[in-house]
Amino acid sequence: MQKYIMSGFFFTACILALVLIFTLPGKEEVAKEAKPSMPEVVLDAAAAETLVKANCISCHGDQLQGGAGPNLQKIGSTLSPEEIYSLVGKGKGIMPAFKGSLKEEEIANVAQFLATKK
Hints:
The chain has helices at residues 2-23, 27-34, 45-55, 57-60, 81-90, 104-115. It is mostly helical. It folds into two domains: 2-26; 35-115, Cytochrome c-like domain (Cytochrome Bc1 Complex, Chain D, domain 2), CATH 1.10.760.10. It is elongated. It starts with a helix and ends with a helix.
């Protein structure tokens, strides 16, 4: 009787393993989700500055000098536009993710704007 129970558990475990192998995402899919690709946009500095003033100055200061958040006055010299895009979209630490509240094109425009700060 125990043989049948154990073989049933083994068979179930094998079936479950096969299902997981074919349904879990691969490394490429996980990497794509982890690093979102930045849409190509033409920099509109006025629109980006408006978005920064509306969403960022409460933590980063009116001159981007820092405060609750870090200084962003020379962020373009340390981070690429793609890195800034990912950071703004996903958030980090106490910084909220803006992916749900801003369009991807708006985040990309802000990222390009901040990347010019060198």
